[in-house]
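Researcher: Please generate the 3D structure of the following complex. Treat every line as part of one assembly.
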Amino acid sequence: MSSELLVQALLNGFGLAMVYVLVALGLTLIFSILEIINFAHGEFYMLGGYVTYYVYALSGLNYFATLVLAILTVGVAGVVAERLIFHDLRGKALNAFIVSLGLLWVMQAGAQLAFGVLDKPVPSAFSGVVRVLGLVMSVERLVVTLSAIVLIVALYLFLRLSRPGRAMRAVAQDPDAAALQGVNIDAVSALGFGVGCALAGGAGGLLAPLFAVSPAMGALPVVKAFIIIIVGGMGSLPGAVLGGLLLGGVEGLGALFMGSAAVNILGFLMVIVVLLVRPRGLVGGA
Amino acid sequence: MFFNEEEATMRIRASIATVAMVALVAAGTATRGAAQDKTLTIGVLGPLSGGAASYGVELVRGAEMRADEINKAGGLKVGNDVYHIKLVSYDHKALAADAATAANKLVFQDKVKFIIGNAVGATCNAVQTVTEPEKVLFSFVCWGTSNLGPDKPYSFRAMLSQWEVAEPFYRWVKEKHSAVKRVALISPNDTSGKDTNTAVVKALKGLGFEVAADEYYERGTKDFYPILTKILATKPDMLDVAAAPAGEGGLILKQARELGFKGAKGWTAGTNPFTIIGVAGKEAAEGVWSPTNINVKSDFVSPTVRRFGEEYEKRYKEVPGVIAVANYAAFDVFTKAMQDARSLDTDKVLAALTQKPFDTVWGKLVLGGRETYGIDRQFLYPLVISEIRDGKVVDIAQVLPAALKK
Amino acid sequence: MERRAAAPVAGVGLIALAAATLPLITRDSYYLDVATTILMNLTLTMSFRLQVSTGQINMAHISFMGIGAYASALLVTRVGLSFWATLWLGALVAALLAVPIGSVALRVSGPYYFLITFAFSEVVRLFFNNFFEGLFGGPSGLVGIPKPGRLLGLVFDGKPALYGLMAVLCLIVVVALVRLDYSRFGLTAGAIRQADLVAETLGVNVFRYKLTAFVLGSFVAGLAGVFFAHFRQVLHSSDFGLEPMVLLVVFTVIGGTGSVWGPVIGTIVMTLASELLRELHHYEILVFGAVLILTMLFAPEGLVALSGAARRRLRRLRGRAPAQAGAGLAP
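Model: Done. Output below.
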């Protein structure tokens, strides 16, 4: 096996990892603030995909403008979901499981009803491929990865520097203490949920031209996101990035050596191994 | 305190939840309409929600179109009776165990004697454990080889499968495109994928091709760069997205092009060419050959197929794929056989089915397949090889199954 | 409280009575099929609740059902053992595998436990689907599994007989689990759920309790799996994947995890509703999703608590003082 092939395999794995990291960051942000796992997270990703389909593919708005619109739309949808059904569920793992599952079903069936059952293609915004030293990557994937990195950095700065961002971190660390400091927990929860969903929506918008959109498209990224946050550690942004790169690398290389269908087992084995060695994930704190 | 507020809220909440549950049950009961006299109930099964939903939805729509046509024309005349056709379709979510329960419901609750339509190989096995002992005629589009056999006399495949199309398709490739020597296959990791690759590999070896790669991916995969990197390293002349559904097949072709693949392209188990063109894009889909695609908009198809396509699109706002057409034809064949048999007795209908050819949207159709399955339960009809040119599907050759040449 | 002792006996009696009368009312194969499925799911949800009662959501529960099913199918078809031996052997295999898996998984808790068990379940499913195809049937599934053989002159080839067998199995499990729930073990489990640390400082070996619940639950799941294999006669890895597992959680939580009777109510109500709504296609999950959300918002303790609330209301209407808020089976 040539070394070129190995590097290409790694590149394949890393290629879209940052987009899945976006999905994972949304999930882990919501978990940090509300202490619940939102199973319908992939459905917000799907929503972002359909916004892109209708606004960019059908109406012809600029790709990046559409992306911003997708992020905002899904963010608002997230805030609404939090206000209507999630705000009472802080820390109630079982109830949140069932409620978010219900939301998943409603959104998926709703999408099938509203958008049709067939895959809907979204044309590529960028054509051509980049070839360096015999390695290949499409311009489209490059743009998508860069956009995802920009969004991750933006999230980092938002959480570090802005007032609402700092309030979110305070609530994530200790809701009671944050409340005592005058942080409006209700507002922060709603905003945090919205931002979390918006990240998924952005990821959906980014991948729509690569993968087309369909009502069930949310299942795959959410499973990847689970693996990423467990490997990296709940609530850790650098952990998620590390987890994403690890998962991408393992899957990319694994595809060379074993049947592609069997490769999926690697991510789950990685979860088990990591949790055995470091029960809080690679970067997870106390 | 005049009244306990918490208790009151509890009560209101409890009542709302109760009402919701009652409404749920009531909604279910209400769907069971009043029975009309002389009604023939026919069942359809399939995945109608989740990732494989498009298969099931096309099955139901195909059956629905034919049933409505018959009802509008005054019903189905069988012997001296005229029947109004009622369709009952259940979602089994592509789960085997659920399919068994759904089949039980059709057979024992709805008293269905004919189940026309099912997809997803593993669910077919489960349904057959119910239909075979009860002598219920069961037709499906599952591509599992084991779904037909002498031990399953009441089961039919209403669509050409890999065993019928792979050999004639690659014989055509060999004759018309002699530059193709090494073929790479990629299919989803399920019954239809495994059996399709097996059939294609057998055909390829028999015809003197080389098999460059024989690969499987997990259904639902979107990023094919890893597996394609491995496949393209084997330098194939032709890439066959064998049993991939339209959406995934389109992604494979698109990504293969990005990775620099310029060879010939095939789709042995083609389903919906319009989706594959849309998803792959015009350039990546250019030149795809398929022996099973149906192009309802082609100038070559019969006027009935074109009319079916127009009606379908008007009604459902989507273009029909091969599964919709197949189940429409299957419905047609079974109802005609009932008329021929002048009875709804499944043994008599079975006899009528195997007696003579039928005129269908496919053209002439017979039941055959004894050499492959040991029993004549496979629908055979002319196979049309098509090529995608500039975003359009062009029919370029027709191959008659041996059974139809007689 | 005198009700504590009365409730289980009455509940078990009620289930036994209902199970026994059904074949007298109908011999319709569909009804018996659904009833058998309900009883099978009951053993699964009740054993699942046993683990939830220690505060953990075990997403690999369905995998042990799969392990029992595949083990028994292979032992019968390949080794030639009798169903009546593999019924226990299959369950035993599931329990044995549960020891190492549980020991690993239970080192973490909360969402980490949830996700590590999910990872285990996917590993098991992908293993059945992609490895040793000659043995497990791979993506095509395993077919031709025989029905249970004769036992003491009884034949188990019809729906009524299989229903009877499942009813007996289910009753054994229910009696065992209910006894457990009202025993010292159940009380300790409740204590662990409410306060892990407090229980630990009081000298309870929390890990051992959780592992015992895990292995015991897996044994019961394996038992249900063996029955499933020979009842359905075909096996496919997706029968033990995320979707059926999620349904188990739904049945249990909608019923209410606070009481041993929660899963009973949840399983029966949800399975019946799902059968009634089957022909609604994707509207079914639309309606179901909405019902899940509403139920959890308005009856967060599950349907069992609802019946408690209703009973209190009934008592008040009759002019009696509200009695203790025991969460028993609906009268």
